[in-house]
Design goal:
The structure is a single chain. By secondary structure, the protein is α+β, with helices and mostly antiparallel strands. It has 3 domains: 4-117, N Utilization Substance Protein A, Chain:P, domain 4 (2-Layer Sandwich); 123-184, Nucleic acid-binding proteins (OB fold (Dihydrolipoamide Acetyltransferase, E2P), Beta Barrel); 188-338, GMP Synthetase, Chain A, domain 3 (2-Layer Sandwich). Helix content is 34%, strand content 28%. It has helices at residues 8-22, 26-47, 88-117, 188-198, 200-203, 233-238, 243-249, 267-274, 300-304, 309-318; strands spanning 4-5, 57-62, 68-74, 80-82, 123-131, 135-139, 144-148, 163-173, 179-184, 207-215, 219-226, 257-262, 282-286, 290-295, 321-326, 336-338. The strands form 4 sheets. It has a 5-stranded antiparallel beta sheet, covered by helices on one side. Strand 10 and strand 11 form a beta hairpin.
Length: 350
Amino acid sequence: MDLKRLPKTEFAAAVAQIAGERNIEVQPILDSIEMGLISAYKRDQKEKGIEIPEEQEFTVNLSAETGSFAVFKVGEDGKKTDVTPPGFGRIAAQTAKQVIDQKIREAEKEAVIVEYKQKVSNLISGVVLRADDYKATVGIGRTEGICPKSEQCRGEDLVVGDKKMFLLKEIRQDDLGRSDIILSRSDPDFIVQLFAHEVPEVGNQSVIVEKIARSAGQRSKVAVSSNQPGIDPVGSCIGQKGSRIQSVLAQLPANEKVDVISYSDNLKQFIIQALSPAENVSVISVEDDLAIVSVPEDQLALAIGSGGENVRLAGILLGREIKINSQQSDSKKPSKTVKSKTKTKVKSKK
């Protein structure tokens, strides 16, 4: 068989260099070269006025060691016929280059995507490269990620040049099969991972984040427990003189507050904890979808929170609607009811 030869120095050396520098496998490069040779052959034939049926199949015999190749036409019976034109090597090297480069870029991107798939649900540091009304594009090392507007915190502007921490939320494919790395700063798990990063006891799971409720950019409530005697879960998360919680807050929008509370299997006790910083909360009754509590009049504003945020987040932790009454029956202040629409439970991760 008369195999044409691509220049060995340009072929073997280039393949080895590309594979090494871009950390991709050799086979995808060879596959792209074969596709490039077929494309080059079809173009060459078209320029000569020879029409090739769209359904006609071709294959290439390519030597990975030497760069020798031949183009074959595949008949209906599967028989292969060598159709490599004379002097085709020079044309192939020129016309296949663009296709080869594209396939190499795709293979390189796929290798990066595989690497970042291992980092899903973890924190990642990035620099904002571009930002518009719909998304922010973030540089994250070897590639870029996207932080859609829906994954950004209310009231926080991501400005070009900002260095921020993000949650690598998922790898998402579009309708064309292209993969995008989706980043988030608003997901509740972003808070969980910040605690795992800043609090060793959360990182090694001796302290567990049992539940979290978050209004990104405003307030979060984190319920924690310990599975080891002698460890104070809330104290561990706060740290000496508030050092650990301050490290968490430093990564959040400036106005977001974080309440760390003690989780309890005793539902009434957990309700009291969930409504902190309000004090002297009394639980009147608890049903499957409703909890009724009363608080002193001077604690009513704290229990409800600005815009009802505190009681709403407490309801999310409990998975129940919460009705708050003033302990003074003759108070002119009305009872407040806030319905919890979702229930969130998150186990802390390393």
